[in-house]
Amino acid sequence: MMLWIFIILSIAYFLLTSTFLFGWLSIKKLPKNQQNNSHSTAVSIIIPVRNEEENILDLLSDIGNQEYPKDLIEVIVVDDNSEDATVDIIQKNQDQFDFSLQLIEQKDEKPFNGSHKKRSITQGVQLAKGELIFNTDGDCRFKVGWIRDTVRLFRLGGYSFISGPVTFFRSKNLFEKLQTMEFSGLIGAGAASLNLGFPNMCNGANLAYTKKVFQEVNGFEGYEQLPSGDDEFLMQKIYKISPSKVVFNRNASCIAYTSAKDSFKEFLFQRRRWAGKWKFHKDIKIQLLAMFIFLFNLFTLSTFLCAVLGNCPMDIFFAGFVTRLIVDALFTYNVLKFLGHRFSFFYFLILELVYPLYVIFFGIISNFGQYEWKGRILNHKIDE
Q: Transmembrane residues, as ranges (predicted)?
């Protein structure tokens, strides 16, 4: 019985990943030479930060280097009770930039019952003067065409929400290289799903949406107490009212770059935070997809152990694993190529071997307990 379930799940996984590959390859890119009035759009870049003293100046410098009129750029940094020198660094360098830079300091005198990041973004949107809102994180870096080409896409398609690409840089060791490859798969799957009319994932490090649509969907209302989800829950709310106006930005000039986690503890807390969102999705299809991925990896591991013990044919397991390997490799290769990374079969094979354990582990612990993030103890729940 277990063997038949593994075979059925393997076929379903092959079809799903093949569909993702089609969805990724069919995403339209910006026409290279088409002219438009993108330089007439005022933009507000909202950066919620906490303890980003080592990174914030690099991000602000990248914004200053953008190939976009500086009088149309407004930057709002919302500091969430930083315990380092983030605020001092911004204040000391505030006059060196030729764009509008506003620093908002949040000071909590008593415990705040809600998502600090969502609160910061909401406050930034309320103050924003631009037509198009950009969201990013304090530890990100960008190429010079980020604003220009995101605005071009916005103007050409009249979009309300643009999900941008994100990747890791400075991958120095095996642990960081595996993170880069795994994270690329998440970005690609989210982009492909959105292109196929099934929005489920995006990343808050690189988003753009209109102030008008944020207000129309009442921002993060309904998810205020979840510590994460400032990205995909907002995307899904906007998609519900205007599905044709939500798009993935598949343009290399608009990639956001951030760093992989260099310690297993930080990685554990980050993935715990990400995984904890799945059960709060109101679309049953997204919950079913999460459960399918979990069950497929669970039966992959179970069938392997069964084969090792001699209770299942090893050749059946091997055929299923190789099939998975091929379709995952094709998808990962194409996404990595777009993100500017070289595909290494060696690292890919290691990732495929450990991935079932990874999915099972985080699928289980995401339902229990608390975790630490940015010096705070958090948990995933929505109070009734």
A: 6-27, 288-310, 316-336, 343-365
